[in-house]
Amino acid sequence: MNKPFLDKLRKIDPYVPGEQPKTANVIKLNANENPYPPAPGVTEVLRTFDAAKLAVYPDANAKALKTALAEREGLKPSQIFLGNGSDDVLALAFQSFFCSGEPILYPDITYSFYPVWCDLLRIPYETVPLDENFCINLRDYDKPNGGVILPNPNAPTGRALSLAEIEDLLQHNADCVVIIDEAYVDFGAESAISLIEKYENLLVVQTSSKSRSLAGMRIGYAFGSETLISTLEAVKNSYNSYTMDSLALAVGEASIRDEVYFRETCRKVAATRDRAADELRALGFEVTPSLTNFLFATHPKKAAPEIFSALREKGIFIRYFKLPRIDNHLRITVGTDEQMDALIAALKQIL
Ligand code: PMP
Fold it and tell me: 40-257: which CATH number, 1.20.120.1220, 3.40.640.10, 3.40.190.80, 3.40.50.720?
């Protein structure tokens, strides 16, 4: 049967997230989630939250969470934008800042959602190759463009630029909005938030999903000049799906207010990461230096898809990307010490 409407539907290569195994007793190291629970204050909020509050709309200005973030970062609430996870914040930022029609720039190996948003929003883009060590060459970004977006640290490589390098990038890209996606910054890299007073075109995006163990709640934020933040607020406009709900606002605030728990969780993950990297190297893996909660590794003698499948059979889920240049690499989320011990023991058998 002729169905002309089919030609009118949007065709898109969707982003494929890491597998969410349904069986119990698996070791899940495939989505860069945090192996530790959220801060104790989060449990308290969930236990005591008054359901009657759900009868009214959430606070449109999100005053309490923005104030907590502003106090932590030494900013004004008007320099902060909130969304349902940083994916939402990024999607809105693409719509708000990358609309000149000129191609935006991002690394050729990076967070695989960027091309999806570009395709959806019809934003032209140009990818900038990483060097042979998966490093970003900043000089490659010195060309006319409609915007720049970089994860720092980058994903899935784990490598980070220093604050001085980010400032260099900003100095050479004053005519466009530069977005630094800091989803993994809390595990050892330097945040660019300190640069937002100086660079009105800088947007720093962070998330509660990784360092704050809140991937299931969807809490993301952006920091930037009042010019950028008010543009995001205007584009968002109304209580739509970008608006955080009242429960998430309360949970987010409880998490941000517990600095001690946050630092200790990040410290534990980073220590386990460094130990696991050494152990993987001892097994012959080449491991890219990581300042994140994951490791990016390749084994010169065993193909990555084989290792991936063999681990999967043993109930250990990691991530494999069938993409040019990295199709012999594996991305392994840092779990607890016990989980990483089980991973290393399984790899010893497989290799
Ligand atoms: N940026 C990067 C680089 C990521 O890897 C992720 C997680 N997949 C995100 C943003 C989005 O995280 P969330 O929406 O959970 O905040």
Answer: 3.40.640.10
Which stretch of DSSP H or E encloses residue 98?
none
d(CA 238, CA 288): 43
At residue 288 the predicted structure's pLDDT band, cuts being 50, 70 and 90, is very high
Specify the pLDDT at position 201: 98
pLDDT band at 15 (very low <50, low <70, confident <90, very high): confident
Ligand 1 centroid vs 183 CA: distance in angstroms? 6
Q: Which residue has the higher pLDDT, 23 or 233?
A: 233
Closest atom of ligand 1 to CA, residue 111: 3
Q: Is the pLDDT of residue 22 over 90?
A: no
For ligand 1, what atom is nearest to the CA of residue 156? Answer: 5
Gap between the Cα atoms of 285 and 287, Å rounded: 6
Residue 227 to residue 277: CA distance in whole angstroms: 42
As for the ipTM of the complex, it is 0.99
Indicate which atom in ligand 1 lies nearest the CA of residue 88: 14
In eight-state DSSP terms, residue 215 is T
Where are the domains positioned within the chain? 18-38+260-350, 40-257
- In this prediction, residue 14 carries a pLDDT of 79
Ligand 1 centroid to Cα of residue 213, in Å, is 13
Residue 270 identity (one-letter amino acid) = A
- Tell me which residues have their CB closer than 6 angstroms to ligand 1: 85-87, 111, 151, 155, 181, 183, 207, 209, 215, 220
3-state DSSP assignment of residue 266: helix
Encoding tokens for residue 68?
A: 């907590």
51 band by pLDDT with thresholds 50, 70 and 90: very high
Which residue's CA is minimally distant from atom 6 of ligand 1? 183
Ligand 1 mutation target, pool 34, 81, 113, most atoms within 8 A of CB: 113
Architecture of domain 18-38+260-350: Alpha-Beta Complex (3.90)
